[in-house]
Amino acid sequence: MKRMTMPLLMLGLAGALGGSAVAEDEPLDAWQPPRVNQPAGKRHDGRHELNLTEAQRAELKKFRAEHREKRIRAQADRRVLEAQIDDMIGAATVDENAVRAKAAQLERLRAAEARDRLEARLALRRILGPELMQKMRARRHHHRQRKGDA
Predict the structure, then answer these.
(1) Over the stretch 42-98, which tens digit does the pLDDT of each residue have?
(2) CATH (one of 1.20.120.1490, 3.40.50.150, 1.10.530.10, 3.40.1160.10) for 51-150
(3) What is the chain's percent helix, strand, coil content, to nearest 5?
(4) Alpha-carbon span 100 to 106, nearest angstrom
């Protein structure tokens, strides 16, 4: 067992030293934080390219806030149910009927999440209209193509 520890330690040390040498080659001011961590207002998401009216912007902002809250709650509920099912299955004695009942509850919740996603897409279409939806779809397609090429 001791023979395995030394090579692993050396490998870890070499990786740590090698990693720091690579990091030193890159100037610290060149590092940019990931775009995902930027606030939504600072992120370039292309909404300005859609030329939305003020009314559309206000309605979209309201819609996004409402939908986000609903989505966060549904995700939390789903995670709780999944954890409960895991706990029930991992218990010393398993009540199979109770597990099946929780699984059915989880299925209903997932179906409700799918319906909410569909309703959100329909609401977005109502806010933007068919022309802007087409423009947004084209931008998304272009972005996916570029991302795939990289």
Answers:
(1) 544 555 667 788 888 888 899 888 889 999 999 999 999 999 999 999 999 999 999
(2) 1.20.120.1490
(3) 85, 0, 15
(4) 10
